[in-house]
């Protein structure tokens, strides 16, 4: 049943409705962001080169708070200097080249591709 609102209360009712919508959407977007980051992390670990398995275990995610929400950074805590060398390849000491083994970029592309569409859907549905 609809609530009867006095004209003088109209602005307060609208303000409360907008605040509720904003909170619901913010929470849902943060959950979707965390979920996507978890998927990217697991995929990067799965695709990582596995000579001993230690390199893949080093991947982690870090949460950074922003003014309008959060972002997650997927990185290798133990071997952060090595990621770009394995991802893109590198020159050998005595000449030649080691071919790259992409693992972080494909994981990102696989799950972040539909992220914007999922966020639009959350905004459209109000959380």
Structure, described:
The protein has 5 helices and 4 strands, in the order H-H-E-E-H-E-E-H-H. By secondary structure, the protein is of the alpha+beta class. The chain has one domain. The longest helix has 38 residues, at 10-47. It is rod-shaped, with a radius of gyration of 22 Å. The mean pLDDT is 91.
Major beta sheet, strand line-up: 1-2
How many structural units, i.e. domains?
1
Distance between the termini: 22 Å
Strand content: 15-25%
What pattern of helices and strands is seen along the backbone? HHEEHEEHH
List descriptors.
single chain, about 130 residues, alpha+beta, two-stranded antiparallel ribbon, two-stranded antiparallel sheet, rod-shaped
Report a brief summary of the structure.
This protein is an alpha+beta fold. The chain contains five helices and four strands, in the order ααββαββαα.
Write the layout of secondary structure elements.
Layout lengths: L9 H38 L6 H4 L1 E8 L2 E8 L6 H6 L1 E2 L5 E2 L5 H9 L2 H11 L2
Antiparallel strand pairs: 1-2, 3-4
Helix pairs in contact: 1-4, 1-5
């Amino acid at each position: 049943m609809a609530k009867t609102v006095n004209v003088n209360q109209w602005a307060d009712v609208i303000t409360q409705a907008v605040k509720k919508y904003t909170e619901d959407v913010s929470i849902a977007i943060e959950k979707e962001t965390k979920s996507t980051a978890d998927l990217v992390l697991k995929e990067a670990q799965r695709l990582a080169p596995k000579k001993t398995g230690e390199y893949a275990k080093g991947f982690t995610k870090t949460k950074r708070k922003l003014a309008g929400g959060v972002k997650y950074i997927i990185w290798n805590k133990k071997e952060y200097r090595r990621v770009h060398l394995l991802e893109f390849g590198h020159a050998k000491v005595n000449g030649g080249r080691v071919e790259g083994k992409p693992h972080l970029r494909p994981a990102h592309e696989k799950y972040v591709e539909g992220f914007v569409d999922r966020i639009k859907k959350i905004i459209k549905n109000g959380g």
